[in-house]
Write a structure and sequence with these properties.
Layout (H helix, E strand, L loop, with lengths): L5 E7 L6 H10 L9 H6 L9 H5 L8 H8 L3 H19 L1 E8 L12 H18 L3 E9 L4 H13 L5 E7 L13 H9 L3 E6 L5 H11 L3 E4 L7 H9 L3 E4 L1 H6 L6 H13 L4 E3 L11 H10 L5 H14 L3
Parallel strand pairs: 1-2, 2-3, 3-4, 4-5, 5-6, 6-7, 7-8
Bound molecules: zinc ion.
Length: 328
């Protein structure tokens, strides 16, 4: 399998940069890292097992999660450009990732309006194009909005995605933890239909921390091309049948699901993957964030092989399908 070309369709910019790079980037920009000890600083970014949704993605005022810190350091046009370039280059050099889609939320990168959101997106695209000149890689960016945002903010992000379509924004996504109130799948019906008409591709984080009922709503109302995770579908045979029929592709991120305890064990993960295969549900294997979760897409496949979850022939099939399922 070594030497094989890889394709990663689900990585978040915030979770894909090495901690030492973030440390240096913070210092270059004069950002107060709060943690002054380098070794303690980098230790924060290794996501340990049994981390919950709250630890991962929470918006708790007292303690910043690694994602909050990473987003803060990436929040300037220069920083976002360097980070996108860094992720694409590193993934190619170290793991032979030849096709890559990176997702990020531009409104989490502009210091609450201090920076122009267009400049942030343009800089990210610039970093992407620079990396594609430096290395033989195909790349695209996905703009993600957050479940906690208002409709107005979702709209801004989706309109920007369309605006920068020709420069390399390939799709949109919805992620983040559910707010205590005010969130509804219905908020996205028109927005998704708008971006689709404009030729963009769509994906939606659901069935990771959310229920099988929500996955149903997403496929019925939003009709995305792909689903981020979608693991909850395993509990509903009818739903799997529908996902397969509609050829919606699940972006499965095994190590991430184990570390956040969406899936309780590798044994269970093996069963899930094989049930999807048996039910003809299309899926890709992805890293979610190779640095924070400590697993590149290449190692993800090696791990699945080592654990006898899938064999080499199936791995080749999944890798080749990933290139086909790409939005690029
Ligand atoms: Zn994700």
């Amino acid at each position: 399998m070594v030497g094989e070309k890889f394709c990663d369709l689900h990585l978040h910019l915030g979770a894909s940069v090495t901690p030492h790079f973030l440390w240096e980037l913070a210092h270059q920009q004069g950002i107060n890292t709060k943690e002054k000890n380098y070794f303690k600083f980098i230790k924060n970014f290794k996501i340990k097992k049994t981390t919950s949704d709250k630890y991962l993605k929470r918006i708790d005022k007292k303690n910043s999660s690694p994602f909050d810190i990473s987003q803060k350091i990436q929040s300037s046009p220069e920083a976002v450009e360097k980070c996108v370039h860094y992720v694409i280059s590193k993934q190619y050099r170290d793991y032979n990732v030849c096709q890559i889609e990176i997702r990020f939320n531009p409104l989490f990168r502009n210091r609450n309006g201090e920076f122009d959101v267009d400049k942030i997106i343009f800089s990210a695209l610039s970093g992407m194009h620079r990396a594609m000149i430096d290395y033989p890689v195909k790349a695209g960016l996905i703009l993600e909005t957050d479940r906690q945002f208002s409709y107005e903010k979702h709209k801004i992000i989706f309109e920007k995605a369309v605006k920068y379509k020709k420069l390399g924004i390939v799709g949109v996504d919805v992620s983040g933890p559910n707010p205590s109130s005010g969130f509804s799948i219905d908020m996205f019906i028109e927005l998704f239909s708008f971006v689709k008409k404009q030729g963009l591709k769509t994906t939606f984080h659901t069935g990771e921390f959310t229920s099988v009922e929500e996955v149903w709503q997403v496929i019925e109302k939003i009709k995305p091309d792909r689903i981020g995770h979608g693991i909850a579908s395993i509990n509903d045979k009818e739903l799997m049948k529908e996902i397969a029929k509609r050829k919606i592709v699940l972006e499965i991120c095994p190590t991430s699901n184990i570390k956040t305890q969406v899936v309780s064990s590798w044994e269970k993960m093996g069963q899930i993957i094989n049930i999807f295969i048996k039910n003809k549900v299309l899926f890709t294997i992805n890293s979610d964030g190779p640095e924070f979760f400590g697993m590149s897409i290449k190692d993800e496949f090696k791990n699945l092989l080592k654990r006898k979850i899938i064999d080499e022939r199936k791995i080749k099939e999944i890798i080749s399908f990933s290139f086909k399922a790409s939005f690029i």
